[in-house]
User: What shape does this take?
Amino acid sequence: MPKIVIFSGAGMSAESGIHTFRDGNGLWENYKIEEVATPDAWQKNPELVQRFYNARRKDILAAQPNVAHQLIAKIQNFADCSVITQNIDDLHERAGSAEVLHLHGNIRLAKSSAPDAQYSETFYPIHGAELNLERDHCPQGYALRPHVVWFGEAVPAYETALQRVQAADIFIVIGSSLVVYPVAGLIHEISKHCEAYYIDPQADYLRVPAQYHLIAQTATQGMQHLFDALQQRFLIT
Assistant: This one.
């Protein structure tokens, strides 16, 4: 079976109605990134940060996987397919993808806000949309915060992602603006034998190396086009 690795970004979730920080001049719900998505923001105003992510979680729970999510899950029928995502929603999992690596965390989970908990792999499922500062704590007594990698924090899953990218036979970048580092640098880590694709309405070679095949379409359009070609090539009937 070929190893197919999907690298998905915000454009993927946008087609399910999930807004991103880059909508509306870099604001979301009238908040600036530095007010709600940094360690300093949590220290200064944890109530605001918690309220912001509770609202995002509510929207994500109401959203549904789109056609692109569903097609990626179906690739598992004829290939060894894993997903690396920059998105903090769980739409890939809900569509049926079994192996999903969240580079920037998963908003459906919480983790301790203890000073040394950044690299902790202990996560707590969030039932419903809300975390409560007064009620929800880790066993050590610290308030639970969203399992989200904030700006200024390290990306603990990066090394695992790097290994998967380097081992890919086929690498598909879909819906990513490729401006958030260090994870955007993963596109340069494919092997010289890897078959690579970049699906994005603004796809061009200013963003990816010449090794990539460009598909200048939306996530759902581009994934349908590529899925049909891959299925025809690999599916054994």
